[in-house]
Design a protein that fits this description.
single chain, four-stranded antiparallel sheet, two-stranded antiparallel ribbon, mainly beta
């Protein structure tokens, strides 16, 4: 977690079993939010990731384990049609303020 937002990092645990895992990549997420790995299998080479933020109720990303690239797997378009809600119409900012105690 960085600045109250989840981050997702990919490591290789298999190439050197007796050594620490090798860092491969930090996954680019759509913005600040929470991630949850939904399903995945090393043999399938794809992990599904649920992404949620203050303005995006939830969408699913696909992470290809060979290329380490992400793509949008599923967005609930029915919910957007029924409610008229479009996450791209909104922004969310992370702002840090000094408290009076900090001077």
């Amino acid at each position: 977690m960085k600045n109250s937002s989840d981050s997702l990092q990919v490591y290789d645990f298999l190439s050197s079993p007796n050594k620490p895992a090798k860092f491969l990549k930090e996954v680019n997420l759509p913005g600040q939010g929470s991630v949850e790995v939904q399903t995945g299998d090393y043999a399938d080479n794809i992990f599904l990731i649920k992404y949620t933020s203050f303005i995006d109720p939830s969408s699913f990303l696909s992470l290809n384990l060979q290329s380490l690239e992400t793509s949008v797997f599923f967005v609930n378009k029915d919910m957007q049609k029924q409610t008229g809600y479009n996450p791209s119409d909104y922004t969310s900012d992370y702002v840090i303020y000094k408290s009076k105690k900090d001077g």
